[in-house]
Amino acid sequence: MSRKIGFWSVFALVTGSQIGSAVFMLPANLAPYGILGLMGWAISGVGAVALALVFGKLCSWLPRTGGPHVYVNKAFGPHFAFFTGWTYWVISWVSTPVVIVASIGYLTPLIGVHSSSFNLSLEIGLIFIITLLNLQGVKAAGRAEFFLTLLKIIPLIVMPIMAFFIFNKDCFLTELPVSSNSISHSLSAVTLLTLWAFIGVESATTPAGSVENPSKTIPKAIVLGTICVAILYFFNSLSIMGVVPGSELMNSPAPYADAAQRIFGGNWHLIISVMASIVCIGTLNAWVLASGQISSGLAQDGLLPGFFAKKNKKEAPYYSLFMSFFGIVPLLILTSQENLARQMNMILDFSVTAFVFVYLICCFAFFKLLPSHQKRTFFVYVYGGVALLFCVWILYETPLKTLLISGAFTVTGIPLFLWRYRHIKGCGLEKE
Prior knowledge:
Layout: H1 7-18, H2 22-30, H3 35-61, H4 68-76, H5 78-94, H6 96-105, H7 108-111, H8 116-135, H9 138-163, H10 183-195, H11 214-241, H12 246-249, H13 255-264, H14 269-300, H15 318-335, H16 338-369, H17 378-397, H18 400-406, H19 408-411, H20 414-426
């Protein structure tokens, strides 16, 4: 029996890795900007789809396990590939604790226990279960992701449809939160906010070696999945902003629950909490799968020690999965300390910026590899240019301090790179 996954599992990974807790909280963050908030979704959605097209094309050229580093290795050689892959791997699991904390945190009203030690035990238990699931192989994890994605997409489709019947355009705020803000400044602010919701657009490229006909399946799933995610985000924000008055929405701790209460009546806070937890668990599963595939792919290319590539009988990279697990648990322990939780959230912000750096170098790799491939249409240059300019613009709008601190994820790989350099050189790794 084939252990490879098909289109729908890859599609679920694409949507699952992107649709997280942001879909529930961003309507409140965007409410002060009124209609500009929706424009921010449109801009970031176009940028995300352009990136999806770039990664889809790169994967069609090089359908190998690992994702971004594979393309950079081909374009710029093993040194750039190492730091790209290292950065991508580290941020893939460093940003995971926040998703785990959110998964359990949303269930707190249902559980009724507010002990930090109890929550920590649930968080560690959750990541342990998800790791065990991924140890059953990509097929098992992909199947689970498909069902989790179904559970979270259905409500996100129903909500905008039902909101249409009581939609009120007067709910939108028409003034900017700060009168001196220019429209361009506000647009950049909302685009930066909404971009974070699309992080993970590339994650389905990581298990390429475990996908049936990856050169065709993955590009199709990435592009269609990202388009669906963009549509869901836009119309869910539109529906909530058209149901809950902006003055209330901007101060709401639970925008979805407030909107559901107005649409359906009754108390929906518990149901929305469970739904939000399922969304986060789906995101967690997608990123645990991706994290294992990233380091496994790096090891297969000689850029990490060989044991990262070892697989069990289910073809799961068990060393890579355990390394991610043992990296995440200490971060969960730190997050459980109230005085350190804020610092962990700051690390998440920096990791998101690091993701954009990875996207940028992949865009450069795309243009470097493009001349060696046939069928170079005008459209290819258009979406490649849009993706590249989008990344440059995002980094330009990011504070310098954030850019410098985000570089720390890459710098942490220097000792390993220096230690491995002679081995990499000895392996004769060249551009493939």
